[in-house]
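JOB MANIFEST
job_type = single_chain_structure
chain_count = 1
residues = 82
[input]
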Amino acid sequence: MEKNRKSIYILIFSNFLICLGIGLVIPVTPFIKNEFHYTTSQMGVMTSLFAFAQFVASPIVGRMSDKIGRKPVIVFGLFTYI
């Protein structure tokens, strides 16, 4: 019973981190909308695509970081972002 409770807390915390990821994008959307003159529908599609890409990429990157290590994966992500 205690092991199940611990697992549930880990899952809740993981879900919180995922929501935090999308929560970091939402506040900057008005600036992007104004800068590039996007419509509200375009911004909604862009936000949905970000969430979908994160949903698809998370298991893949997680598996890669288990095999290679977290540090090389983070460094690769930073270099590809630039």
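[summary]
The chain has four helices and no strands.
Residues 40-68 form the longest helix (29 residues).
exit_status = 0
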